[in-house]
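Troubleshooting log. The previous run stalled partway through. Resubmitting the same two chains, unchanged.
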Amino acid sequence: MRINKILKFIFTLIVLTTLFANYAKSTEECFENTSRAIFKFNMTLDEIILEPLAKGYNKLPAPVKTGASNFTSNLGTLLTIPNNILQGNFKQLGHSVGSFAINSTVGILGFLNPAEKIGLKPNKEDVGQTLGSYGFGAGCYYVLPVLGPTTLRDSLGLLADTFVDPFAHVTIRENEIFGASGNKLDYYSVKGTGAVNFRADNDKNFESLEKNSIDLYSSFKSIYLQDRKNKIMNSIETQDDWGSLDN
Amino acid sequence: MQKISVCLISFLFIFQSSLFAYSSNPKSFIDELVKDAITKLSDKNLTKEQKASFVEKVATENVDINALGLYTLGELRKSSSQDEISKYQKSFTRYFLKSLTSRLTDYSESEFEILGEDKKSVNYTIINSKISPSDGGPEIKVDWRVYTKNPEKPLIRDLIVEGLSLARTQKEEFSSILNSNNNDIQELIIQLDLFVSKNQ
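Second attempt completed without errors. Output:
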């Protein structure tokens, strides 16, 4: 019954993405003025909450930071696994399953990362990337409150993530899987720690970008779109669009 | 005679750095240039002005600022007049040097290592490197797009940090400013000049 529901959801998602994503090119804005206002709000939120937390987090001893980062990253692999299957990427599936199994056991619930030492390094995948790998366009770009930059495809993907991610099933929907149980607070705590960890890792980059941008909103947009493209292709593309300047 | 010798030696010493050129091999070129920059920018004996003047000199000689300026202007470079382009290039160069000094200073206390090279064509070689921040932060992968049309004088055209092209980001930033100002190049020039004057 539950599988039926998930399949229906995925089908609806594909139909919606196909319908809407083709209406807009990825660089087009859905509603730029609103997005710019939300971006401003997010930046204020960052300034008063996330940035101080990240700066404090950066003062923690390195093993604590690494442990927290490994823990959230290991749980994130649970979302990667179904997406590896949906993308038919079985080599990466091996990396993801192997990494999760080893880190959750030998790596003491994921706080250590012994899997990386033996060459298992799964790429993070989500439904937005899976849809991208199927050839669905990004759709238009906009900014969500708190969550930040996104596109039509990626925000539908974000919603779908909670249906394919076993960790979300255990926590948000409070379903027991293999004896594991949890609640919403667990889910948001892990996601929150992941966000602080990301912000802390990129503290210097954020500062540098803020200091050197003429239009910070556009810089974030460009970085977000380039990053998503690389993630969908699972590679760092050195795009050659210098055209006539080559001569 | 002794005075003349002292003057001559001092003259040679002062200009020794400007006579020094980096290797023409793209890999060694980036390695020498970045290590030189890290040494200079992390030198606590140098003043802010001395560091800025070093960056300006190195960037002017080793970065293809002219091509970068045209690239970031996008399609507008084809429809703008020569006079407009020339004014834009002047403002862009000042803006670029200012922001480059700031960016490089932010990352000066880091370890640098060349990882490899990928010759894309006769015109381009991508140099792969990594930067390890001294504060224990995560390693940053940086690819350098080196323009090698003149094999004797390689020039940097772009930095691709963790897959994100700085030139492309800059181009899209400028494009947004132009789009919201009816593609008026003058408005972009004003914004660039404003950035420079704010960061004096």
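Takeaways: The interface with chain A takes residues 67, 70-71, 99, 102-103, 106-107, 120, 123-124, 126, 133, 135-138, 141, 143, 145, 149, 157, 160, 162-165, 168-169, 172-177, 191-192, 195 of chain B (CB under 8 Å). Chain B has a mean pLDDT of 86.
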